[in-house]
Inverse folding.
């Protein structure tokens, strides 16, 4: 628990880390606009490319940005300050505090996912050891929706909206040209984003007809049987597959395909930025069935950075988490992360809560069992009810009533 | 030349063929609503899955659809009647006319690209030979923008808008995390859609930094040199590559990668629905340079079916071409295709012109030399001026002024 403290005065540094989202800049701008309200926050600096920018002393002065420009950046996807994937070692922290001291940084905000929360936690703990007085907050973002303590995380709803829209269109494409279509969706350990494909369904026969999540063991054999069954019923089959699907030993299917795998400093295997998994699954279905038209697409980075379609709820919440972190740091708390909690009741509403850094650092959360169908190849109504209010309005999909002309 | 004819009376059959687009249903609904205005058009039937639906006598009665439902379908991407890739043989035509006669079909409209225009042309010529009186029109659509006679084709502008938006977001993603990012865009022989990536550029250092089109020979060696040069300058590099890029012998690079290739009845090699080309290019750059972070995405079918973002100009023109085809067939012309011509002058405006079927059938057009940079790895200002009014408004992209904090 962070103890309630006296206000301190000094400069603020904010940075972004990990994979971008469509609304990560909303959190950044929410934080900057809030900072301007607090007299004890003097300089408002942005570090370029996360903690790497601190080590290199590459800061921009966010007080020199006009409000209209801040608002324009808020509406823009991806990390406006640049990002990085870097876990600080103790010796890095010594350097970080030397730089922070030089610039009188007393407020530090790090916008990111579980790895970035871990970085924030390390910085916070090392600051205490070094007796460097620092207000240290993590601001959540991740399209994977896998931060503990949170009902959902900023970035997820917009990524989910993209995935749902993509499946809406792709289901229609598959309905027109038939065959089997496999779409690979981001999500290393948590299947939330892949599950969002289910929101694309409008009519009873709409795809995705099958949804495979990393929370369940993936069997190639069962996959082929599932596809055959759906194809027999509908004459076509649309499949949503998480990039993180793994075999019974926990090895990602994607990692089985390549001899060499890239690993970042947080120990994450690179899964995105390649079409290999989709192609492998597609080849497997071609070989195991008599279906001639089998295609695979990998949605890739579009899921986190496509402009102009962010969820309104997501944009609002991302901004509010950023603002609250600054407010708490400026007025009463030494450290923490902001978590989104959903209020009980029929109407969608949330509250925000400060939680200890260690509670969101490193480990991730997964889809609860109640969100996954018994057969492990679909989501439940409970998941739809959970995700729908986050994503908000989706395009209308029309379809002919289709009264048949009597055969002559 | 179709001769001006007396009006005939009978039923109308309309169908969709080839790859879907975001606005192909606008053409369909434009045609249906126009047909309702003409007393000599009695039944308005839709054939399911192109000419395959005729052979199977699978028709729906489009007079039984409410106007509000027709409008909902118009706004929906992909082919609402279903599609097919099938070139009719003379013996198929005998069957087609037997069915058409049974249902008194005297107006036939086929919405599609160059292959569908070829099908329409074959049906028209065979109908003449068989002395089966038929008004036979092709209605253009193709995201590839490769129909002869046309300034541009319905479907292209919306696909181009998707590609531009995708590159806008992906350029920001690459700016945040650096490295090299390769995106593979649809386009078998014509580079228009890949070229549209250039519309994503807002700031001088924005990607795509390199654009490779099927109109120029692709050299792996030059590609690696280009990437190295851009990376040295910007510390990052975003590349747009057409799926149809080919080597000096005209062999598609994508086809070089796989021993088995799928070919449809029009003789087209399957290039989409696989990530192999992007992965191959990505591996090549990793091996040939010292750049560690190299990623590839293949945009795939999203380019032609993503809902909710269609270009307004595209939607309007698609509807008008569909309506005009029906109007001409109902009132004065026996056959043809509708071509879009751009009016001279500063303000964007078009006219529509009936052209002979043979002029758009089979052969495709390519990017003119004036649209391609001398080095063959970018587009020109002339292309931007051409494409911008078609695509219309794109999302605003904000960026920090970024005043540096003076180093201490």
């Amino acid at each position: 628990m962070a103890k309630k403290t006296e206000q301190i005065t000094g400069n603020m540094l904010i940075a972004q880390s990990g994979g971008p989202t469509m609304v990560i800049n909303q959190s950044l701008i929410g934080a900057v606009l809030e900072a301007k309200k607090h007299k004890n926050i003097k300089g408002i600096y942005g570090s370029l490319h996360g903690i790497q920018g601190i080590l290199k002393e590459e800061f921009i002065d966010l007080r020199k940005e006009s409000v209209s420009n801040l608002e324009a950046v808020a509406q823009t996807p991806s990390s406006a300050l640049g990002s990085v994937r870097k876990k600080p070692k103790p010796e890095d922290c010594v350097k970080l505090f030397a730089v922070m001291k030089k610039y009188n940084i007393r407020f530090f905000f790090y916008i990111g996912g579980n790895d970035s929360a871990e970085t924030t936690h390390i910085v916070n703990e090392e600051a205490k050891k070094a007796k460097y007085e620092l207000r240290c907050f993590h601001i959540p973002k991740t399209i994977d929706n896998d931060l503990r303590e949170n009902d959902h995380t900023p970035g997820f709803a917009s990524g989910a909206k993209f995935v749902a829209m993509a499946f809406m269109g792709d289901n229609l494409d598959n309905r027109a040209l038939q065959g089997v279509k496999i779409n690979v969706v981001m999500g290393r350990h948590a299947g939330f984003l892949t599950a969002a494909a289910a929101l694309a369904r409008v009519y009873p026969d709409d795809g995705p007809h099958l949804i495979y999540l990393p929370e369940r063991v993936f069997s190639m054999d069962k996959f082929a049987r599932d596809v055959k069954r759906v194809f027999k019923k509908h004459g076509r089959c649309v499949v949503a597959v998480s990039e993180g699907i793994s075999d019974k030993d926990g090895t990602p299917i994607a990692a089985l395909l390549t001899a060499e795998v890239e690993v970042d400093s947080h120990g994450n295997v690179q899964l995105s930025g390649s079409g290999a998994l989709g192609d492998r699954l597609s080849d497997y279905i071609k070989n195991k069935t008599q279906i001639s038209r089998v295609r695979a697409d990998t949605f890739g980075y579009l899921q986190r950075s496509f402009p102009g379609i962010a969820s309104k709820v997501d944009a609002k919440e991302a901004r509010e988490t950023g603002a609250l972190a600054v407010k708490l740091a400026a007025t009463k708390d030494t450290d923490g992360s902001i978590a989104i909690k959903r209020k009980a009741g029929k109407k969608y509403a949330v509250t925000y809560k400060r939680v200890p850094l260690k509670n969101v650092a490193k480990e991730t959360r997964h889809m609860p069992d109640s969100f996954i169908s018994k057969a492990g190849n679909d989501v439940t109504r409970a998941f739809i009810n959970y995700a729908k209010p986050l994503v908000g309005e989706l395009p209308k999909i029309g379809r002919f009533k289709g009264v048949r002309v009597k055969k002559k």
About this structure: The first strand of chain B starts at residue 10 and ends at 16. Chain B touches chain A through 87 residues (CB under 8 Å). The longest helix of chain B spans residues 156-177.
